[in-house]
Amino acid sequence: MSTAVFQPSHVDSKLHSDWLYLHADMPPAKWGTLPSFGTAATWLGMHHSLRRGQSELEHLNREFLNQHLEWGNYRQQLLAIAEPHYGHLHGHHSLEDRHYFPRLRLREPRLQAGFDLLDSDHTTIERQLHGIRALLVRLQQAGADTADFALAEQLHHAVAENGQWLYRHLMDEEDLVIPMLALYDAH
Ligand SMILES: [Fe+2]
Ligand SMILES: [Fe+2]
Questions:
Q1: Of the ligands numbered here, which is closest to the C-alpha atom of 119?
Q2: Nearest by Cα to 135 from 152, 115, 122
Q3: Other CB atoms closer than 10 Å to residue 136's CB: what's the count?
Q4: For residue 8, what pLDDT is reported?
Q5: Which residue numbers in the chain have pLDDT < 50?
Q6: Alpha helices, H only, 6-70
Q7: Could you give the count of Cα atoms lying within 13 Å of 175 in the half-sphere of its Cβ?
């Protein structure tokens, strides 16, 4: 499975190198060969779909603002993709907050600061989602007939800002969590 397709090349990690000690036993080069039914591969698959949804939303915003897409088509496609994408994102983070992260913290007490960072990312991303959802309500209410370029600009900036956090969060979370899941699945 490739997760690199939708990942910008300029994402800078916030992880401390000391937190990556499990990469000695489970380096990223091995992740593509993990069993597809395992928790680690399932986790990577969810992240892949979140990256794809994010890149599709960014693409639609650019296409409309560059006048390659007319308003009605833009509005319809953006609303159709945004609802399931942000639903998956919220649901995935809720599951991590409630179920996975507390258990993983107990398994690797040395990684508390890393999970604090991931928790803090979730809080920031959730706050951004509130703003994006409010813009999506306005997009829904705007109707299909009259283009609102100011609203599309606001959506473009809000979705792109959220994407910067999301891409970095997914990358950092994988570096921290995937080795744990893969090694625990194997034992
Ligand atoms: Fe997360
Ligand atoms: Fe995640």
A1: 1
A2: 152
A3: 20
A4: 74
A5: 1-4
A6: 39-65
A7: 19
CA angle 113, 114, 118 (to 5 degrees): 115
Residue bearing tokens 């991590």:
96
Contact 9, 166 (CB under 8 A): no
How much distance in Å is there from the Cα of 178 to the middle of ligand 2? 10
DSSP state of 21: G
Q: Where are the domains of the chain?
A: 77-187
Instruction: Give 100 Cα–ligand 2 centroid separation in angstroms.
Output: 10
Cα–Cα dist 164/168, whole Å: 6
> Which residue type is seen at 136?
L
171, 11 Cβ separation under 8 angstroms:
yes
* pTM, rounded to two decimals: 0.93
Task: For CA atoms 9, 78, 166, 159, give the dihedral sign.
Answer: positive
